[in-house]
Input
Amino acid sequence: MTLRYSYTLFAPVYDALVAPFTAAMRRRSLAPLQEEPHDEVLLVGIGSGLDIPLLPRGPRYTGLDLTPAMLGRARRKAAASKSEIRLDVGDARHLPYGDAMFDAVVLHLILAVTPHPGQVLAEAARVSRRGGQILILDKFLRPGQTAPLRRLISPLLGLLATRTDVVFERVLAQVPGLEVASDQPALAGGWFRQIVLRKSVA
Output
């Protein structure tokens, strides 16, 4: 089962399942967009658009997702929003944007979904400007954390919706030129983490 097919099936119920427990941590993760000026912001894996009502006014936003059914729901949220946002269908592993186009890239609940998180993070870094931010919100294991149940169920869940065995530090090690500016627990005793990366200016 492909992720596009899975999320096409999930689209009608996704908001009801995910929105109630992610709204507060999404808002906290997006807070850096208010703390310094940004002109262009990319939201990779925007899904049904749960971030859209939480976006601060000012920047021009671009949202991308693999699944047209999810983007259809995001478009309805965008129409009701006062934010300027463009929505594109595309693959996070091969972003259809030029190098250094965005001041900030948002990766909410995408690195643990894709089977290629290092490639997705590398693409986010490519389209980020020097000194730009990458805002990450997702569930990650810590290096050396055993978490046998999460590791056991990850292959099955990964086929359906999301992986539960991704170690963020291993993903980050695949992408040079990114520095950790902040790493904070967000939910579930730190399983969900709110991470801010900064692209090196060197």
